[in-house]
Write a structure and sequence with these properties.
Nucleoside Triphosphate Pyrophosphohydrolase; globular; alpha+beta; 29% strand
């Protein structure tokens, strides 16, 4: 039987199973115990000044409601590569079809210390600085923030997805110091 739904992978990021999207929270909670991890693709939207478009999630989101998020973050389906997931997410969440300037920054593995049972591909998409046509089902709005300001807000306790801080650090290491 062919796998359907969201991808579950082993510690080598090899597809082993799948989970129905309705069971995502159960998969997150049992990921380390069962050694089955999810795949995600996350995108920072960056303007010419190096500022990151930082949206706030709607209050009804199950993870970090009302908190900061990536411009786009999606769980990978069994039939998708990380890039396929990024393309789908940018289309669904930001209405972006043109991917010129999209580049992979790196892959972050599962992080037990912050309970993140994910393999996450972190991308940056260069933008002209225009606020994206974001999904009102996902976000209440967003602002362009320097990496330094975003990092300071996260360190001060601003609610956010747990992966945001490590991904921001990866971006800063790969592309240079905090701006």
């Amino acid at each position: 039987m062919a796998l359907e739904g969201l991808a579950l992978v082993d510690h080598n990021d090899t597809l082993t199973d799948s989970v129905d999207p309705s069971q995502i929270m159960e998969a997150v909670e049992s990921g380390f115990r069962l050694r089955k991890f999810l795949r995600t693709s996350c995108v920072f939207l960056q303007n010419p000044e190096g500022k990151i478009w930082t949206p706030r999630q709607v209050a009804s989101m199950p993870i970090a409601p009302g908190g900061f998020d990536f411009a786009m973050a999606k769980h990978g389906r069994v039939d998708e590569t990380y890039l396929d997931t990024a393309r789908r997410g940018l289309s669904e969440e930001l209405n972006i079809e043109q991917l010129n300037g999209l580049r992979l920054i790196g892959l972050l593995g599962p992080m037990r210390s912050i309970q993140l049972p994910y393999f996450s591909a972190i991308y940056v998409l260069d933008s002209d600085g225009t606020e994206p046509d974001f999904s009102r089902a996902h976000f209440t709005g967003g602002e362009w923030m320097s990496r330094t300001a975003l990092s300071a807000a996260l360190e001060a306790g601003m609610p956010a997805k747990s992966l945001l801080q490590p991904a921001l650090l990866l971006l800063s290491v790969v592309e240079g110091t905090l701006q």
